[in-house]
Amino acid sequence: MRRFALLTLCLATVARAEFKAAYVDFQRALVEVEEGRAARQRLQVKADARKKELEGEKVSLEQEAEVFKKQEATMDDKARRTRVEGLMKRQQDLADKVQKAQVEISDAERKEMATILPKFEAILGEIAQREGLSMVFDRASSGLAWAPPYLDLTNELIRTYNARKAGAAKGADAPKAADAAKPKAGGAPTK
Question: What span, in angstroms and rounded, lies between the C-alpha atoms of 62 and 68?
Fold first, then answer.
């Protein structure tokens, strides 16, 4: 019995010593990697265009409401009721468009970021294996309230991601440069 207790204590100590965890802030990483910044800029352009369009409709509706207020006293009940119903319908249509635009922008953002997250996960897997980590938590979705900053892998994830994207871009440019340096049929290499 004594040996079993000692063995259990030793195994528990070894198990605790082997468990290493870290965390990453995916939201911050998405904002700070070059591809994430570019995606956010594209989304912002779409959102701004949609907002401008909806603002135009809002101004038009407000102007029509002002005209109605000025003319309301001179209208009969049927005409007034018809105008009010028309304004209310336009107001509801505008509210629906605003809500639809918000959903569209959210969906577009989710799609843009969905292309980046699997790449993040692959890089984190490599970092975790290299560092001997048992688990890596997402700061936002894990319920992590506090952890020491030295366990934060976000900066390393961002650096590695951007370095790989830059390396991939250079690698894609290398064949173009090599093709340009090849002599064309009957000629000298182009510059």
Answer: 10
pLDDT at 133: 93
Q: Domain of 82?
A: 19-168
- Overall number of domains in the chain: 1
pLDDT along the chain (191 residues), means of 10: 47 63 94 92 94 95 93 91 94 96 94 91 95 93 90 96 87 56 45 39
| Residue 145 belongs to some domain of the structure | yes
161, part of any domain: yes
